[in-house]
Give the backbone structure.
Amino acid sequence: MKPASPPLLGLRRSAAWLVSLLMACTLLPATAAQADNPIVQHIYTADPAPLVHNSRVYLYTGHDEDGSTYFTMKEWRVWSSADMVNWTDHGSPLNVATFSWAKADAWAGQVIARNGKFYWYVPVTAKSTNSMAIGVAVSDSPTGPFRDAIGRPLVGNGEIDPTVFVDDDGQAYLYWGNPNLWYVRLNADMISYSGSATKIPLTTAGFGTRNGNANRPTLYEEGPWVYKRNGLYYNVFAAECCSEFIAYSTAPGPTGPWTYRGTIMPRQGGSFTNHAGVIDFNGGSYFFYHNGALPGGGGFTRSVAVEKFSYNSNGTIPTINMTSSGAPQIGTLNPYGRQEAETIAWGSGIETEPASEGGMDVGYIENGDYIKVKGAAFGAGATSFAARVASAAGGGTLEVRLDSPTGTRVGACTVPGTGGWQNWQTVSCPVTGATGTHDLYLRFTGGSGYLFNVNWWQFQAGSGLAAAPAA
Ligand code: FUB
């Protein structure tokens, strides 16, 4: 969050709506961030959309610009994890400019895998109408790059927040809307549809009762997330702006009739919006949401977080509260495999950027910054540590510590100047005392200004200081 960007101007929602949400925002102070929630600390993220693919969770988010005073969002971001605590930053493979017909507002979307491809449905403001439309991007990889699949809006009626669900019979449905709730049947190609958009009846039986707003009698506000589990169809949505809480309805079929089932996540967390994504992964159930919990966080500077939960035996969803601890780690992380520096449980002071060698690197490192990697299983013990580093300055020291940023120092690699921030060189240093499973802290020290960048790291076991791994 070091480089600050000026906010975009332009209000898409009513002034009354904004006044009420800003008042709500001031009533919900941001809490100090601790532990491992929110998931990402180096940028503000919003509108989580998780996807399980090949034993990893891919998490698609929006990006709230630093210092934003509106939903100033220019790009979407991708993260992934195999253990729900260490998340790899895959950068931004999709932004507003990907859609030549769009002008602004990279708001809440969702990615679905089908036909060996990944389809990303997003709302953006269209140039021609100056109102919201739903675009669809496609990629061969869950991390992109994504391209505009059709070169025009898929649907466009001024409403937002697409969610896509593919039923067991292969029929896909696109749902979206604020203030209404719409669906359309997608064709198998996932980039066209049959029939016309249908309005889902927003009845109080289906979506709860909102008091004091004759124009919006139900709790449904925005952000639908539709899925099926054990034969029951769920619609999890943001309710009753502002502030929003997360509620849900269920139905016996993909088009209803919906029955309101109550609150999942109460109003919490210092953001007047909330936005949910729900998955089952590795035998557990996970609820993603956003809040304003990071320093500087709030209604326009949000952060995505996650909680693990269990469905009740009748399929209902329990109340889920925001925590600063988040989901427990699944298994451990292997420090003897090459790990990307941008795989992080908690980062302090660092930024990420595209690396010339591919993927991302950790950069803008200053004295005292650190990265926490949770639950590294060292086993009988590591003997050396190697890291891929670059520095256009004088470099510094990469300290290897256990259990806290000031915990036992088990190694320290000297990082030299390499003649450029993307001139990569592998450094290594001996390690003693790293046995068993620990949270690993890579702490960066040196003089003033930016010190060096890190692309990846890897421990080695065995006698003596092993040769640095090949680049
Ligand atoms: O992030 C912009 C908008 O805020 C989303 O589209 C809504 O769901 C709300 O989270």
Q: What stands out?
A: The helical segments are 15-26, 204-207. The chain has two domains: 15-309, 339-460. The longest helix spans residues 15-26. The pocket of beta-L-arabinofuranose is lined by residues 46-47, 62, 71, 73, 107-108, 160-161, 222-223, 238, 273, 275 (CB under 6 Å).
